[in-house]
Design a protein that fits this description.
With 1015 residues, the protein is α+β, with helices and mostly antiparallel strands. It has 29 helices and 16 strands.
């Protein structure tokens, strides 16, 4: 059946249909359908293509239609090509928390024109982990190193743009209190970037970076010129005041200015660029800050200066009088010929003004007239560019060396010197000119900043998408460098690991890449045999990486994920190894609860965890802004919830809440004149009877109870660990480990510590009062078990026949030690001898046949001799492996035997931490809340004020100690001890933890890692 739609071609091949097609027309029909389907795929979008592919590949038509679409089965996708691929259907592998999902090795055959699109689709799908097929090649020898360099250059330009965005954000937040849009980072930004090509993006970034760089240079120059204009204007205004405040005399004349500052650069191009009037910046009359800007003053005649030492001292003592006397020497208003005075004027920082005056007085020995005035408002310094408070100074000194010395002193203290016109009209004209030119420069700067702000606003909106695009493009280039170029086929060959459940998603990504490239057939994916993939892959292209471990892939839920992280912190599970995370998710919070058992503290922990869980959506949005301290409880919210639940359960078991017992069901003990007596027909339903709290033997009873409970749970967890080793051996079909390690280990543990747990339950279940016997000491029983097998103490018999049972168990325990020590190396050596015998027989038979049948070719005989040498050397290596295995087995046996004892004792930390937590709670409640808060109120003469103050102080202190010591320090201590019990005592029974995680080529993960590193 063939259906032709109005907008696209749809073909369906069914098992049943009314139409019939002659067999001779089948090839023509197939070719026509292939051409139409390829044309329609190119014209349609990605979404429509996916919908059509789903309609074209149902389970009943897969075998018929897909080979037709891919060229009649000649070179398409992996289905139908290879029997091994049929085992991995759309159903996928068994996804389980207990073991890694099966991960298979695949080989990709990519046409050169579709390689980039294929890797983009695979990166979006995130289903494949590439293997590097060019391990021996250096970075410079990789075929796509140029693309990597282009991406890195573009990233550098983008970082330059981002720096300007951050500066703009800082200035706007300082003025407006907000952050501009587009600066939120790349977390959550899509891959995007397909609207423009990479070359267009490169040109856009280069133009933007060049524009910003050029604008920075112009802005720096114009800002410096504007600062100089402002300083010159301040100097002219305040200098005029200083002159007007000087003594009224015309006994001297200041010559006109001849050395104005050098002209600045022209701004014709900037004015044209921003649409402003033509402004000639060279007419601003502003020179560099350190330029000499002297003003020649009047000249004295010969002999008119101080002629005697007395006159010199008088002039140094009173500079103002000396200057006035100099100015009064000629009262006709004419210039004094032959007499030379010079002026030095400018601005200096206000806090440096006293120092400047002192240094000038000392350098010129008092021969100067110094006037200064502070500028009203802070101005921008022309040298540093900072806003500072400055003062204007005008200095009158002798022309020549004195004036040069004064100028040098001013420059040393960071003063900016400017020329000061002598005539008032000139000063006013210059001030007007400076004001107009400063307004022009400010207008140019505002227009320049407005244009740069518009460019930055657009860049701020696009920067996250650009950053994500460049990260993904760089990742694609690195992935292309991992592929091998086949020159004969003109295609790229690649290898990678794919979980079985994601094979169909990988095929769909390759089909989309073929459609984007306009190919008739999508890239070909070949699945390698699953057994061979475990040791590097049969027919693998990566020769040097053969023997690499298969990655482990788990998809835990949000509840199991933090416990999986705890396990991975110790070591990642192997691909064929049992995952401890599901067991840890139960036993870890349970052991924590045993050490932290308190109803009140457990409820506080539950409330704290629920405060994160109930606000999960809102907190997930601001996860990127969380600090490292905040992220710990956020990621461990479900762990804390389970720990709080189990701590509350253990608190009910211990009958303890904030160090106080509670009676929920009524005690089974009744007070009597001689003490307390238990009702023989009644038992407290759950947990400890509250009558034990406060009794004289409370501590000894509770300690004995918790100690035995710790041993019971510890042996149970170690037994679970050995049971997991059974599961690993059965899963791997490793019968040597099953019979030579797992079975003797279980027998050893059960014959000693399993028997100890049995005696604990037997002692608990026996009514020693009714039997009128003293209960035996289990510590004495255990010592007799090892030191005197087959004997029991006189008062320590728990059951009849105990001596014979203990003798049998001791014999089993001692028998398992040589079993673990010798059996495995012996079996391995026998297997090696058997294998070597088969190889010798095969080699001897082949050699004899060759000598009789083909003695004419001596080269083949040489090859056989080389092979024999290789076999002998391989046998030598195997003998070394056997020796190494024997040494390893000795170490492993000693470690297990000693560890069984030490690990059992290590579980006593459950009792020790629980005891410490309970005693601290009791001390805080009794010594702080009761004695400091309640007892003062119980006194007869206690007033309301005293009672209130004592209660407030005691409650505050008790709450602070509870939160800081118990809820923080004790919680962390119990957490670490529970972590040690699982990492050391539990996981070392079966867990190697030397696997590697599945790290797919995923754009989402790349962007997330980049966001984390940026934070």
């Amino acid at each position: 059946e063939i259906y032709l739609g109005q907008t696209r071609t749809v073909a369906r091949v069914g098992a049943e249909g009314p139409g019939a097609l002659p067999s001779r027309c089948l090839p023509v029909t197939r070719r026509w359908l292939r051409s139409k389907l390829a044309t329609s795929r190119v014209a349609r979008g990605k979404k429509d293509d996916d919908a059509e592919l789903e309609s074209l590949s149902p389970a009943d038509t897969r075998r018929t239609l897909l080979p037709l679409v891919r060229g009649g089965g000649g070179g398409g996708g992996g289905e139908g090509r290879r029997p091994a691929a049929a085992a991995f259907s759309t159903q996928g592998g068994s996804s389980s928390l207990f073991r890694s999902e099966p991960v298979v090795l695949v080989q990709l055959y990519l046409q050169a024109e579709v390689a980039h699109a294929a890797l983009e689709e695979l990166g979006e799908a995130g289903t494949l982990e590439f293997r590097d097929l060019n391990v021996g090649a250096t970075a410079i020898q990789r075929p796509y190193v140029q693309q990597v360099r282009v991406c890195e250059a573009m990233q550098q330009q983008l970082r330059f743009v981002s720096m300007h965005l951050r500066n703009a954000a800082g200035s706007e937040s300082g003025s407006q209190g907000g952050t501009p849009a587009g600066l939120s980072g790349i977390r959550g930004s899509g891959v995007g970037g397909r609207q423009i090509s990479l070359s267009e993006l490169s040109h856009e970034l280069a133009d933007l970076a060049a524009e910003l760089k050029e604008g920075d240079g112009h802005e720096a120059a114009l800002s410096a010129d504007l600062a100089k204009l402002h300083e010159m204007g301040a100097m002219l205004r305040h200098g005029a005041r200083l002159i007007s405040a000087a003594p009224k005399s015309t006994a001297y004349s200041i010559e006109p200015i001849t050395d104005f500052p050098a002209r600045g650069r022209s701004c014709h191009r900037l004015a044209d660029a921003f649409g402003l009037p033509d402004v000639e910046m060279g007419a601003l009359g502003v020179g560099p800050p350190g330029a000499a800007s002297s003003v020649e003053s009047g000249r004295y005649g010969k002999g008119s200066g101080p002629s005697t030492p007395t006159d010199s001292l008088r002039h140094r003592a009173n500079a103002a009088d000396a200057a006035a006397e100099l100015l009064r020497e000629n009262g006709d208003g004419t210039s004094l010929s032959g007499r030379h005075l010079g002026t030095v004027s400018g601005l200096v920082a206000r806090h440096k003004l006293p120092g400047l005056e002192r240094m000038l007085f000392r350098a010129l020995r008092g021969n100067l007239l110094f006037r200064a005035s502070s500028v009203d408002a802070p101005i921008v310094c022309a040298i540093t560019g900072e806003v500072t408070s400055k003062a204007v100074f005008v200095l009158l000194v002798a022309q020549g060396r004195s004036r040069d010395k004064a100028a040098a002193v001013c420059d040393a203290l960071g003063a900016t010197r400017y020329a000061f016109p002598p005539d008032e009209g000139e000063r006013r004209a210059l001030l007007h000119d400076v004001t107009v030119r400063a307004a022009d420069v400010a207008r140019v700067l505002d227009a320049m900043r407005a244009r740069r702000g518009a460019a930055l606003a657009r860049a701020g909106r696009e920067a996250p998408a650009w950053r994500a695009r460049l990260l993904c493009e760089k990742a694609v280039a690195h992935a292309l460098n991992c592929l091998h170029y086949e020159s004969s086929r003109k295609c790229l060959l690649g290898e990678g690991w794919v979980p079985v459940s994601r094979l169909d998603a990988t095929r769909a990504a390759l089909r989309r890449a073929g459609i984007r490239a306009g190919l008739h057939a999508p890239p070909y994916m070949h699945i390698v045999d699953s057994e061979a993939s475990g040791n590097g892959g049969f027919g693998s292209l990566g020769g040097e990486s053969a023997g690499e471990k298969r990655p482990s892939f788990f998809a835990p839920s949000a509840l199991i994920a933090p416990f999986q992280a705890i396990v991975d912190a110790y070591g990642v599970p192997r691909a064929d190894e049992l995952n401890p995370a599901p067991f840890v998710a139960v036993t870890f919070p349970f052991f924590f609860g045993l050490m932290f058992g308190d109803v009140g503290h457990g409820l506080l922990l539950i409330v704290f965890a629920l405060s994160y869980i109930l606000r999960e959506r809102s907190l997930k949005k601001r996860e990127a802004q969380m600090s490292e301290i905040e992220q710990y409880p956020w990621h461990g919210r479900y762990v804390m919830l389970l720990m709080g639940i189990f701590a509350t359960y253990a608190g009910f078991l211990y009958n303890d809440a904030f160090g106080v017992s509670f009676d929920l069901f009524g005690s089974a003990w009744h007070p009597t004149p001689h003490g307390s007596r238990k009702d023989p027909f009644r038992t407290y339903p759950f947990g400890l009877d509250p009558a034990w709290h406060g009794s004289p033997n409370q501590l000894s009873f509770v300690n004995s109870y918790k100690m035995k409970l710790s041993i019971v749970f510890g042996v149970a967890q170690m037994t679970l660990g050995i049971a997991c080793s059974f599961s690993n051996a059965l899963h791997r079909r490793n019968w040597v480990d099953f019979w030579c390690e797992c079975v003797p280990q279980m027998l050893f543990l059960m014959s000693i510590f399993g028997y100890l747990v049995f005696t604990i339950f037997l002692k608990w279940s026996t009514d020693w009062v009714a039997e009128a016997r003293r209960p035996p000491s289990l510590i004495t029983l255990l010592i007799k078990f090892f030191m005197e097998p087959g004997t029991t103490p006189d008062d320590g018999e728990l059951f009849s026949g105990q001596a014979r049972v203990q003798l049998l168990l001791a014999g089993i325990a001692f028998m398992t030690v040589p079993w673990m020590l010798v059996a495995k190396p012996y079996v391995k050596s026998r297997q090696l001898a058997t294998k070597r015998g088969y190889n010798d027989d095969d080699r001897g038979g082949n050699t004899g046949t060759r000598l009789l049948d083909d003695v004419s070719n001596p080269g083949d005989l040489l090859d056989d001799q080389k092979n024999e040498k290789g076999d002998h050397s391989g046998g030598h290596d195997e003998e070394e492996d056997i020796v190494e295995l024997a040494v390893h087995q000795i170490i492993h046996t000693i470690e297990f035997v000693l560890g069984a004892v030490s690990n059992t004792a290590s579980y006593l930390r459950l009792w020790a931490l629980s005891l410490a937590h309970n005693q601290l709670s009791v001390v805080f409640w009794t010594k702080v809340f009761v004695e400091m808060g309640l007892q003062p109120c119980a006194k007869k003469d206690a007033g309301a004020v005293v009672c209130g103050v004592s209660l407030v102080f005691a409650t505050t202190t008790w709450c602070a100690l509870t939160v800081v010591v118990l809820m923080c320090m004790e919680l962390l201590s119990a957490f670490l001890h529970a972590l040690r019990l699982h990492w050391v005592e539990f996981q070392n029974k079966f867990y190697k933890g030397d696997g590697r995680p599945f790290r797919p080529f995923s754009f989402q993960q790349i962007l997330a890692d980049a966001a984390d590193s940026a934070e």
